[in-house]
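Hypothesis: this fold can be encoded by more than one sequence.
Test: take the structure tokens below, design a sequence, compare later.
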């Protein structure tokens, strides 16, 4: 019986893994994980994401061992080296097939095509599968046959086209006979893990992902539509790190939502329907990354915005990064990011729009900073969110929509609880005064004055965008 090599990447789970399920149906399986540290760092991932990734690979090895599937680890510095490394491993093992789940950003897609061509040229079977999303890019298109560039019609097409078969979950493989091939010893985490706050904040693995899903659905989802925008409330699923690395599948999430919502996805319980919408947003950005590869190459989706006259003041950018802007909600959010490797989604929008509109700093600088710190740093979602805030991307906020940070703070952190938690300097102030302390209070507690006046910054941003027309 022929041996199949299963290549894991950002699909670090045994249950409901399409390629693993299909590989195990053929016969014995040996798994491999390529540790591409140099490439990941070139792509901008920092210690938090990489540490969580490698911890997830180690957790995967333990899970696979329960099915007698050995996991081999190979250090392959760049994607260009992946085809040769995988072919050499397959030939050493005597594997006749390579199975993997597809990834859609430009570099990953080019790597995978090179792997496919290498194996076929060598006369070996290679199979890839749609796993991370419900529809292959190109399956959902506009009436003109184009990729969607606006979320709402994409979402409507998604709901209109979804079939039960696309949400069916795949069984974990049966326990195979003990293989003569032994798993590699669990690799030690690299030295960069010492700089990862994620090691204290997040536990890797599909079991932990399932625990988060159960807690969210049993305790929080019914109020999700109301609570998800309030950062002081534990109102979100906290599943984004697990979804970004495939420690849980979108199918498991969708099935769990339908089970609680009488089989419905777009209607029914407002919390469940809203959460499903957020899962579809993740898929939308995967389609964008594939259909418009320029966004994977540091380019704006709205090409005319490449001519924007960004200020790019290094002192302003440093103040934003360090949480010293003088706007409490911005500074509290940036400190949450730096200390936990995660930021509440409402705050991601507020801080991104502040950097791009108030400080007129190129969105690419903020995008890179987030990716370097986020444990859930997903390229497509991060890029899509930043370009939305900067009014340069798909489904972008109109350029004249410029959040007032203080208004946002009062609306979504009304009692100043989140601010007090992350800015101890302001914790002694009454909650209502934490949003925009007057100069006397700022001086008393040692909190800086605002970098820029909101109205002045707003007019400057409007003028800058109008100059494009």
């Amino acid at each position: 019986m022929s041996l199949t090599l299963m290549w894991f990447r950002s699909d670090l789970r045994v249950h409901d893994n399409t390629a693993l399920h299909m590989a195990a149906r053929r016969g014995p399986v040996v798994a491999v994980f390529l540790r591409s540290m140099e490439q990941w760092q070139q792509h901008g991932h920092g210690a938090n994401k990489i540490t969580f990734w490698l911890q997830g690979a180690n957790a995967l090895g333990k899970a696979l061992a329960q099915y007698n599937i050995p996991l081999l680890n190979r250090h392959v510095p760049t994607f260009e080296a992946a085809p040769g490394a995988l072919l050499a491993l397959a030939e050493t093992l005597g594997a006749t097939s390579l199975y993997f789940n597809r990834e859609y950003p430009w570099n990953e897609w080019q790597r995978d095509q090179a792997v496919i061509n290498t194996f076929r040229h060598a006369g070996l079977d290679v199979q890839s599968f749609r796993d991370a999303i419900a529809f292959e890019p190109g399956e959902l298109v506009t009436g003109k046959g184009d990729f969607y560039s606006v979320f709402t019609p994409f979402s409507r097409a998604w709901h209109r086209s979804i079939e039960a078969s696309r949400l069916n979950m795949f069984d974990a493989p049966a326990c195979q006979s003990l293989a003569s091939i032994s798993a590699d010893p669990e690799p030690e985490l690299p030295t960069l893990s010492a700089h990862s706050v994620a090691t204290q904040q997040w536990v890797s693995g599909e079991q932990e992902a399932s625990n988060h899903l159960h807690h969210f659905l049993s305790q929080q989802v019914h109020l999700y539509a109301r609570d998800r925008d309030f950062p002081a409330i534990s109102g979100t699923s906290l599943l984004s790190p697990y979804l970004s690395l495939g420690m849980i599948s979108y199918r498991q999430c969708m099935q769990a939502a339908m089970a609680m919502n009488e089989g419905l996805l777009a209607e029914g319980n407002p919390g469940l329907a809203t959460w499903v919408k957020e899962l579809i947003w993740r898929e939308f950005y995967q389609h964008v990354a594939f259909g418009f590869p320029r966004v994977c190459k540091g380019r704006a989706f709205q090409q005319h915005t490449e001519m924007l006259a960004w200020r790019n003041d290094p002192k302003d950018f440093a103040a934003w990064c360090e949480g010293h802007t003088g706007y409490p909600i911005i500074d509290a959010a940036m400190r949450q990011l730096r200390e936990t490797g995660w930021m509440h989604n409402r705050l991601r929008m507020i801080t991104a729009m502040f950097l791009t509109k108030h400080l007129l700093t190129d969105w690419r600088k903020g995008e890179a900073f987030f990716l370097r710190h986020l444990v859930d740093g997903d390229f497509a979602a991060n890029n899509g969110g930043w370009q939305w805030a900067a009014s340069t991307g798909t489904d972008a906020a109109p350029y004249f929509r410029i959040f007032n940070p203080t208004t946002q703070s009062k609306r979504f952190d009304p009692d100043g609880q989140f601010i007090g938690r992350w800015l101890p300097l302001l914790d002694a102030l009454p909650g209502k005064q934490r949003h925009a302390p007057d100069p006397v209070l700022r001086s008393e507690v040692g909190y800086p004055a605002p970098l820029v006046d909101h109205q002045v910054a707003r007019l400057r941003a409007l003028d800058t965008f109008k100059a494009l027309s």
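Residues 303-466 form a domain with the DNA Cyclobutane Dipyrimidine Photolyase, subunit A; domain 3 fold (CATH 1.10.579.10). The longest strand covers residues 29-35.
Hypothesis status: open.
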